[in-house]
Amino acid sequence: MKKFLSLLLTLALVLSLAACGGGNDAGTTPPPADSGSSGDTQAPPTAAEDVTITVAALASGYEEAYPGMWQEVCDAFTAETGVKVNLICDKNLEDVIGPSMQGGDFPDVIHLATGREKGLTEQFIKDRNIAELTDVLSMTIPGESAKVSDKIVGGFTDTSVTNPYGDGVTYLAPMFYSPCGLFYNAGLFEEKGWTVPATWDEMWELAEKAKAEDSYLFTYPTTGYFDAFLYALMYSVGGADFFNKATTYAEGIWDTPEAQQCFDIIAKLASYTNPVTPAQANDQDFTQNQQLVLDNKALFMPNGTWIVGEMAEAPRAEGFKWGMTALPAAKAGGNGASYCWLEQAWIPAAAPNLDAAKQFVAFLYSDAACAIFAKGGAVQPVPGLTDNLEGDNKMFYSIYDNGADAAMGNFAAYNAVAGLGTVREVFLDPVNGLVNGSISKDQWISDVKAASDQMRANIMG
């Protein structure tokens, strides 16, 4: 784990200089005035005890693994501060809070990561409608003497995931992190005597073995899961230099041999993907694609550690055991790579109770909150939290100690341009077309190049 943390710190410092943003696009609306200060020290804001804040949190696999996780954290916050909390926790959070926000009724705190199909967090980033959180880092955690910055592993607040405008200001608080990789049925591999591929050449050989077993090499929950996949692939193929240039749309980057190798791998992987995948690759049916792995109808899928809780009650093949591996190395003797997925909590700029909302965000890093989240398998970037992991999580979080390179960061944010799609629409969604044959690899590459030129011309920073 020490190796992982040092890797993350190094990568985060590099990527914070090279990648300017975490949103898929960004608007030109001037940022709203924020009452906070970004000084070195900050006393916790005072919130009247009769205040009630609204917290909206995604009911993800962690909540399924430990039902009531978010409510318990909210109750602990109320017990410590006296501030009451109205919790909204739903698997389809955007649908629940979206209509009221259109009417001007905003939650005070939202826990919802980028990369979702509906792109709500990206929309707030694009419109610059997120409150600054830099001052929260210097706040004292309610009930403790430590500051928030004391409880967050170095580097996690210096990346494009949390600082989307490349201006050194934190707008999104780093929450649950998860090493992402390819998940599979380790029991099936043991039964068949198969070795987990260390290179892509070995992966293609395994694809033929799967075909002989009336199965497929690959599936994916939704195309959104290809963000972590693509980031790790770019890092394994070209290292930090290629990754940084690609995520900032450097001129000519998609004509390089490294880029061509990435395109080739994804296109070939599409040809070995279970054909039912695209039809189920949406926020309503994605678990059916995940079920393909549990039923041995696909060998691998990209995912994060939350998958265990998310599919805890799902049926599975006899002898099923979770396995996870980094993306294979680009060539023999090279390192594989695993993207570090990082969820975020943030405050809408129009939150009605800004001071109390910042108190709540600070409390999320308290020992009490961390212990509650850990019951659901949710790990925050707080020192020491991985020391006591057991079972599947211990195996998952050791991926970096076992030789995988860690990748962290996002495509740079850019100003909105008429007709220019989001990063997901340009880079990731076409994978569905590659699988069902409605788009060719050459067309995909051509579209990426054209869009990337516009992204580069309108990059923020």
Protein described:
40% of the residues lie in helices and 12% in strands. By secondary structure, it is an alpha/beta fold.
Could you tell me the CATH topology label of the largest domain.
Answer: D-Maltodextrin-Binding Protein, domain 2
Report the order of strands and helices: HEHHEHEHHEEHHEHHHHEHEEHHHEHHH
Full CATH superfamily name of the largest domain: Periplasmic binding protein-like II
Strand content: 5-15%
Radius of gyration, CA atoms, in whole angstroms: 21 Å
Give the proportion of residues in helices.
40-55%
According to DSSP, the number of beta strands is: 10
Low-confidence stretches: 1-41
Mean pLDDT, to the nearest integer, reads 87
Shape: globular
Largest sheet: 6 strands, mixed
CATH class membership of the largest domain:
Alpha Beta
What count of helical segments does DSSP give? 19
Concise synopsis of the structure shown:
The protein folds into 2 domains: 19-178 and 340-389, D-Maltodextrin-Binding Protein, domain 2, CATH 3.40.190.10; 180-339 and 415-457, Periplasmic binding protein-like II (D-Maltodextrin-Binding Protein, domain 2). It contains 19 helices and 10 strands.
What is the secondary structure topology, with strand pairs?
Blueprint: H1 2-18, E1 52-58, H2 61-65, H3 69-81, E2 84-90, H4 93-102, E3 109-111, H5 120-126, H6 134-137, E4 173-179, E5 181-185, H7 186-192, H8 200-212, E6 216-218, H9 226-247, H10 257-271, H11 277-280, H12 286-294, E7 298-303, H13 307-310, E8 322-325, E9 337-346, H14 354-363, H15 367-375, H16 391-397, E10 405-407, H17 423-428, H18 430-436, H19 441-457
Parallel strand pairs: 1-2, 1-3, 6-7, 9-10
Antiparallel strand pairs: 3-9, 4-9, 5-7, 5-8
Helix pairs in contact: 1-9, 3-15, 9-10, 10-18
